[in-house]
């Protein structure tokens, strides 16, 4: 009887031990295979404007530094560009020359020049008169047989030359008196307009040596230092608009759930130890590089990643770009 009780006791201990092992294995399996909740994390982003110049030159002065608040129209950078100043001087000289040509064309020839042309014409007319008289005398002598035909031809040629000279002198006088042709006047006007256009172009480039702030915000980065050379389009500084801030989340499509345009989401901002409510304003699939590719033939599918942007429904004090936000739930 005693031996039977001993066997029964051993069996009970064994069963208890087995039950304990099963419970322990179950607990371990529960912790191992329990689904881990997915944490969706995003970060604060802001609208950023890059300030750069159209003309190459040397940084003469920087009027803003990193962390400084600036307003629209504030002067940020002064660039020294000797090449632009030289081109402006050339354009002004071309304009002065074109205006001188225009004044000359519209004013006409000087009176002294007109008088000189008239005197040359009258002198040529006197030459024609003398040549005509000589020709008439030689012609009568030729008719009487006193001189040869060759002598008569030489005198006739001199007379014709005098007539041609007088005609040319008269033409020069008429040109001097009438002044420039209308086409010449229009040509000088075009030259002046061209010079003015060149000046306007260079002045536009010269204005680009003084860079002003296109928005109100905070200077986040300054790239060159005073005295450094910058090329055309080189970035000089970045300005962020702290009033235009949002959060960006990268979410797998199987986790989108109720994340639709206009819905609200509750988040926690660890850096501020603060909760906030955001409104979804943007949902778009990212490029193919952000797509998770299935490796099995069945049971799985390619999962795209979507960018979800959400803006705070109320101002969040001390919120800075780059701060993280942990998504808690979607508020429909």
Number of helices: 5
Estimate the mean pLDDT confidence.
Answer: 77
Residue ranges: pLDDT <50 for 5 or more in a row?
Answer: none
Proportion of residues in helical segments: 40-55%
Biggest sheet strand order reads 1-8-11-10-9-12
Terminus-to-terminus distance = 73 Å
Number of DSSP strands? Answer: 12
Descriptive report:
This protein is α+β, with helices and mostly antiparallel strands. Among the domains are: about 1-35; about 50-80 and about 205-230, Beta Barrel (OB fold (Dihydrolipoamide Acetyltransferase, E2P)); about 90-205. It has five helices and twelve strands. It has helices spanning about 1-35, 80-105, 110-145, 150-180, 180-205, and strands spanning about 40-50, 55-60, 70, 75-80, 210, 215-220, 230, 235-250, 265-270, 275-285, 305-310, 325-330. The strands form two sheets. Strands 1-8-11-10-9-12 form a six-stranded antiparallel beta barrel. Strands 5-4-2-7 form a four-stranded antiparallel sheet, with no helix packed on it. Strand 9 and strand 10 form a beta hairpin. The model has no long low-confidence stretch (mean pLDDT about 75).
Topology:
Elements lengths: L1 H32 L7 E12 L4 E6 L6 E2 L4 E6 L1 H26 L3 H33 L5 H30 L3 H26 L2 E3 L4 E6 L6 E2 L4 E18 L11 E6 L4 E12 L19 E8 L11 E8 L1
Antiparallel strand pairs: 1-8, 1-12, 2-4, 2-7, 3-6, 4-5, 6-8, 8-11, 9-10, 9-12, 10-11
Helix pairs in contact: 2-5, 3-4
Summarize the structure.
With 332 residues, this protein is α+β, with helices and mostly antiparallel strands. The protein has helices at residues 2-33, 82-107, 111-143, 149-178, 182-207, and strands spanning 41-52, 57-62, 69-70, 75-80, 210-212, 217-222, 229-230, 235-252, 264-269, 274-285, 305-312, 324-331.
